Amino acid sequence: MSEAERTTKAETLERRLNELRLVATEWARMDFPAADAEVARRISSVLRGISERKVKFLLEQYGQICEVAKMAAQGMSGKQIAAAMGKTEPAVSILRSLAIELKVLQTVVDKGAIPAAQPIDHELSYDLAQRLGMRITVYVTPPREPSEGEDHYWSRRIRTFADCAASRVTRRVLESRKLGVAWGTTVSSVVEAICQQRAWRDRSLPLTAIPLAGEMVGSDARESRSCSALADKLVSAIVKRGSALSLRGVPPFISTKTREADAKAVKRYFHNLDPVREVARASTELDAVLTSVGTHDQPNKLYTQELTQSGVSAEILHTLSCGDIGGVLLEMPGLTMANRSRFTRIKQNWLGMSEETFRSCAARAQASQCPGVLVVALGGNKAPVLQKCIAEGLVTECFLDDELGKELLKRV
Fold first, then answer.
1. Does residue 193 register a pLDDT over 90?
2. For residue 336, how far is the Cα from the chain centroid?
């Protein structure tokens, strides 16, 4: 072999090793289970040149393929890799070839055919899980672009977080029979991500989605993020057999400008409506809830704006409440008797599910291993309210960004 041929061969080998190294790095970040049949189907439909059976085999062998790729990247020969893995050299050669095909699949991921997972901060996830005694997944926050405005960055940040959390959230949802659905920007983004994946419609068990509160009024955007709208979208996206209850036309709360006696009469009226009674009965049997937590100073102040327009000033909210879970206001610790009375008056005008609904669902999860209360949230400012929810037994599992995860870790 001439010097030029040896140089060409060395360059080719180095290029392949770099490809293998990339495969090992990138595929270690993917967040779906090996041999997922739906992932195989979707990849196959995009590539067209690789059968579902071949894609599924690639995913099944993914762990060993990455192991071979890492060893090759460290300069080990095929013979050395074979000895280390207890395989024959031809088998190692096949695994190397498959690694190149996985690089092709990664290209499909990059093009958006299937969602690539945002890196998970495994160390932070583990530390929080150990401290709090629950399952927690923390996703790394994407960096902000130099010329990116605050609103655009938050929108992209929420969308990226939702795309990454969607697959794990869906797996939990599919373990449920009666699912409570809250509202808000983060929850609606996760639901949209689940709907776009549309990968779980083969579930045979029926699913009932139950809105946890009525509808905000005033704009199409608010209606599209309502509990009823999101419950309907979820059922349509992930199951063949299912139903979504509705609270359309029912407000989430009664204005505090209403006289107390009149407010009680209005509350009785709504509680006697058939849809409201049906939702109330179903909520006592929830085995899963998809919700978020909120503060009064977050960028998307949908709920806060509604409250302030109904007679509760921003100053009062900050004084009396540390935030909410699914719309249920949580009392600020250390209130005076007078302020506690004011807080109770505001909370009594809430028409949605009570704090006890979340607590009961979380308790059922501990007793029966059902999914329980799933919280999706991002932003360090939510750490105090999330800590309170966890301390009061309202949460079963969390999906967080690392900013919130780090702030929460400081407090526990």
1. no
2. 37
